[in-house]
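Deliverable D5.2: sample structural annotation.
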Amino acid sequence: MIIFYPKTNPSLPKNDLENLNKNDCLWIDILGNDDAETETVEKIFGVDIVTQSEIRGIEESARFYEDEGNLYLNIFVPARIGARPYEPVPPSAVYHRSTLGLILTPNALISYHQHALKALETGKTRASVRLDGVKTPADTLQVMLEALIERQAGLLARIGNDLDAVSLPVLAEKQLIKAEPRLKKLGQLGAQLALCRDCLFDLARMNAFLHSYEGKFGFSREALTAFKDDIADLLNLNQSQTNDLTFLLDATLGLINARQSSALSFMAVVTLLFAPPTLLASIFGMNFSHWAIFNSPEGHWFALILMAFSALMVLLIAKLARLF
């Protein structure tokens, strides 16, 4: 699917390639991997669009470069499986690593990605591409970079709320109940933090790369500097949340181990409690007729009293040793 935004009226996007005017195109967004549509855009603008598999194989040092007056930018961004453009995200959707390719030409900005990205939707919110007053492809790239940064900020905010929701039951409850779902939730939050961190690193590198082409393409120095500060703050927040997640994971595992140790201690005391009576019962169950006590009418009472006394002695020793 291809959507392009004309310079004359970017608020009215189009999707018919037959009416695509190279000189009146501000931004072209390619969603999916339709080879025919990709080849058409390549012929019109004279660029080489890198496929998704090729992006994953690109060296880290070669993901930002200039070729024949065009800037090629390739970054990794968090995306949700099953998300559709301009539709609510399913609650059960899971974040995964997706690739976003950008080509900045003198005439238009070209973006191509395989999965729907909420940051590339146009709108009025801070976490969307706002094309009001945008005149050039370089301006479009700047507002897109701002939307990507705001999207990561929103993701970190949701992760922070989820961490609070998980941490309160873990630390407040007297007994750890259903630990497995909580461990799974903490693992999912850790994966989201890792994806967000990688995306912020890529955005920082892309922002630094655009700084070197500030004069050539007309980027705003003030905007790029502000983006740099925002990314640095979000990386600090990401690190802080990672530390909180590590603490919660250690606390959860520690409580599980404490509960297991308590259960094992209880079982050890029970085992010790019945060991001496079992020994005595085995002795009195032997067939020794020449022992007078075995033939005495009061012998069973003597055995029971001796067994109870031995159990009480073990219980007293366990109590003094603080085994429970």
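Annotation notes: The longest strand covers residues 70-80. The chain is about 55% helix and 15% strand.
The annotation will be released with the project's public dataset once the embargo ends.
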